[in-house]
Specification:
The protein is an alpha+beta fold. The protein is about 30% helix and about 30% strand. The strands form four sheets. A four-stranded antiparallel β-sheet has the order 1-2-4-5. A four-stranded antiparallel β-sheet has the order 7-9-11-12, with no helix packed on it. It binds 2-acetamido-2-deoxy-beta-D-glucopyranose. 2-acetamido-2-deoxy-beta-D-glucopyranose binds next to loops. It holds the Pfam family Sushi. Keywords: Disulfide bond, Glycoprotein, Repeat, Signal, Sushi.
Length: about 200
């Protein structure tokens, strides 16, 4: 070893010791930070660039962070516990319905109960839950228009009315149906009268 190199050696040694002091094992021997579903972590770049002792968590679009975002390595452990990235479900858009909870977005596991407006009947689940994949379980219900009970006696005319959600149209349909019954009755009376005339001696 050349004398010049021998002179440099203690300096290198000192640098090594210093770097060890700067990075004591309690701070530097953490494993990789925990992974979280629908999120990622980034190193916090500070003055001690060579030491990874702080990470910050960020969630994917459509997910929100629940817990503490910043973790540090202490006594070989990341503390506090890693946060969670929870799904945000879009508001269920159901025509002619009221929701038990009204929000723009709903947090994962939230339950919403659906109440159809009067005159409408639920077709599907009464209660739905926001899932991790940002969809509603078990599906999106509908509120279907139902024939008012007062119209039920109309029997035959009912079919026409099921196609007419407007009360005014229903009224017209009912009147038309009434006329058709009257015409039918008249026709039967005419038939009867003809038969009677035919049977009677001239
Ligand atoms: C939603 O309903 C389910 C099933 O009834 C229940 O397990 C869950 O705790 C409810 N979620 C909330 C946030 O209340």
């Amino acid at each position: 070893m050349s004398p010049k190199l021998q002179g440099v050696f203690p300096t290198l040694r000192l640098l090594g010791v210093l770097s060890l002091l700067q990075c004591p094992s309690v701070l530097c021997d953490c494993d990789f930070p925990p992974e979280v579903a629908h999120g990622r972590h980034e190193e916090v770049i500070g003055f001690r660039v060579f030491i990874q002792n702080e990470v910050i968590y960020k969630c994917d679009e459509g997910y929100t962070l629940v817990g503490v975002a910043k973790l540090s390595c202490s006594s070989s452990h990341w503390t506090p516990a890693a946060p969670q990235c929870k799904a945000l479900c879009p508001k269920p858009e159901i025509a002619h319905a009221k929701l038990s909870v009204n929000k723009d977005q709903y947090l994962q596991a939230a339950n919403v109960t659906i109440q159809c407006d009067s005159g409408y009947e639920l077709d599907g689940p009464q209660s739905i839950t926001c899932l991790e994949d940002r969809t509603w379980y078990p599906g999106m219900p509908k509120c279907k228009w139902v024939v008012p009970e007062s119209c039920e006696y109309v029997g035959k005319g009912r079919k026409i009315m099921q196609c007419l959600p407007n009360p005014a149209d229903v009224k017209t349909a009912l009147e038309l149906y009434k006329y058709s019954l009257e015409i039918e009755l008249l026709e039967r009376q005419i038939e009867k009268a003809k038969k009677y005339t035919a049977e009677s001696p001239q």
